[in-house]
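User: Some background: our group keeps a shared notebook of sequences we're curious about, and every so often someone picks one and asks for a predicted structure to add to the entry. Today it's my turn. The entry only has the sequence so far, pasted here. Could you supply the structure so I can complete it?
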Amino acid sequence: MLNIQLIKEALIDAKKTFDKVKSDKNFSKRLSIGFGQDVTIYFDKEVENTILNRLKDHVNCVLTEESGLIEFNKGNLNAIIDPVDGSINALRGIPFFASSIAIFNGEKFKDAIAAGIINLANGDLFLTDCNKVYFNNVEVQRKDKLDYSEIVAGTDLKVIDVNDPKIDIILKLFKNFRYLRFLGSLALELAYVAVGITDAFIVPFKRIRFLDIAAGLLLIKFAGGYVELLDEDLENLNIFTNKRLAFLVSKNLELGNYIKKVIM
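Assistant: Of course. Here's the predicted structure to add to the notebook entry:
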């Protein structure tokens, strides 16, 4: 429980920092291009520093969205963090942006020992000790029953190449799901699937970094959901990989298999 408590404290600190810097004159200042090739904004860096300060005495290496790989050489644990996922939402005041942390006792996905995500807008907190999943400190109970006419699914609509043959998958999703969403924060999109608020999320294109989805995938897995990287071995994936990934997650195996039939 030590590791999940560490994540919980770091995420709560992250929200406190974000709330503090909202009134800072530099809040929306563009600072640089970060490790993930996105613009680092003042609040991104402040939240990152807060999380790193909480983790630095407990981890060996940290891969973070803004600064890349940082070595603290304290113990055997490694961490993946995304300080603010959904920065455009944060800038515009759309209350859907998050901090995420995943901790591993090794360098592969299967070495995960804890993860968490916090909605920086409202404080919703999602945690897993890689055994159970907790939403605002209440254990999540798995729900397998589905009404396929009422499925709420998400997909990333940022199509990089309109000539990509997989673009047809987006059309198939629109045809097969009445309620399709894209809310602008991958971390929270996956956290919502984990706790059953939404039912699935699909990215058919190889364009997502593991850093963006590490904590969310773990939440879904240990909530009893279905998690699959398309064309990659998830369990043996190196957590520091630079590969771009395609993936499918859903609240259970039955729905995962149904979606695979739809998109294949």
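Suggested note for the entry: The first strand starts at residue 30 and ends at 33. Helices lie at 2-21, 42-55, 87-92, 167-176, 186-195, 210-222, 253-263.
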